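In response to reviewer comment 3 from the previous cycle, which asked for concrete evidence that the modeling workflow produces usable outputs, we include below a single protein chain processed end to end. The sequence was submitted unchanged, and the resulting structure tokens are shown without manual editing.
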Amino acid sequence: MYTQFFKHHWLKSVRAPGYYKNLIVNIFMGLSILYFLVIFVLMGFMLPKILAEAAPQLDPALTFNGAMFFVIVLALLIRFLFQPLSTINLQSYQVLPIKRSKLVNYLLLKPLLNPANYLTLSFAIPFAITGINPSYGIGGAFQFILIVIFLIWFNTLFAIFLKRKFGSNILGIIVFLAIIAGLVALEYFKIYSIFDMSQRVFGFLIENPIGLLVVMGLSAVAFVLNKWFFAQNYYPESFDKKVAKKQQAETQNFSFMERFGKIGEIISLEMKLALRHKRTKNVLYTAALFLLYGLLFYPNDMYKENDAMLMLVAIFVTGIGMILFGQWIINWEGSYFDFLMTRNIDTQSYIKANYFLLLSLSIVSFILTTPYFLFGTDILINHSVAFLYNVGVNIHVYLFGATFNTKRLELSKGSAMNMQGVSYKNFIVIIPLLIVPMGLIGIFSLFGAKNIALIILAVLGLAGIIFWKQLLEITEKQFLRRKYALCEGFRKKE
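The workflow returned the following structure tokens.
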């Protein structure tokens, strides 16, 4: 029976109209996965040497064990945010002589068989050979690999349970971040060493055969929790009522936007759309996490002389909301685009509403990244120039480029590893968005004239801000030319 379920899932995928149309995107994703696979393997072999240099007083295996607890909590947070929930057309199977338990077990086994989960093994196996084997022997290395597999299962199943039980709402995110911040604070202020505790726990798990039973038990507990949840919410009627009630509670009434006329009403609808669907909500959480992206670069001395990279980071963090939502602007309304075009909404108001939405996201991102100014005057200048470039150039690039994207976006689907609604056009827009300013800064920096490049980017941004109405008129005319092509493209379900 499980074989039949997986066969049905495979046939549903390959028979979808968009399966072969996304060939270029699938090839790109495959090459990206292959690239990271090679990187993980190399990191696994090199990690013992890196850990030995970072903490020469400790064995690399002990250092790794000390960090494992933090890694597991962080991985659980990432899965909670981005891991899509497995689904099945329940009504089609309920009328057939199939046991309820088989349907539930299939939903739980499906994510465990996702090959993406086991990319971690491309890192864990080389490290087991070079880092665990010298300290714990061959048996310990083999047990370490099995422990990693069972921890992957535990993280996958427990994240699914938390997501189904509590939903990936902002309160859940705050709780997770508070837990991580609390653990870091305990370690930093030396109240209690999570690092030492993690060393002892994972050392015990690797050294003792009972350790394997412990992690297997954790996976089993996560599996049982999911079974319990489905036992309470098996019938769609009861579950749909809870979901509808939850969505109604989460949806905000943006009535204050109505005072801005038709443009305000459209923006209000866009904001409600963003808060009601899984993909858009996940993008909001992703944007919040990527605001911390600068912490990977600004404190690091090796990047202080790399002007092009620092500008890339500045553009990214000061416009992260605009960047993530801009790639979907217009085509995220594909499900009801025909209806929208029949309403009493003039094209100018529609384009302006999308412009002001992206503008507000850019302003919010810039304000939230002002603490980076503490890293120095150069960062302040980079962020200011990047903000001007985002507002004056990149917003208009996104709006104009959106008129060419005719792929309908299904907002009800998860966003993790989901390329539905994405085409090569989404990648072409990266050229003016990131590559042009990076290239300009890089070229002028070779001649010691970085400030000239900054002035050019700032002037381009200011020009875009001053002549925003004229630029929107160009986008409006382009939208009118492409409107019927967009309508036709959005009618096609993939």
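Residues 2-247 form one domain. We consider this sufficient to address the reviewer's concern, and the full set will be provided in the supplementary archive.
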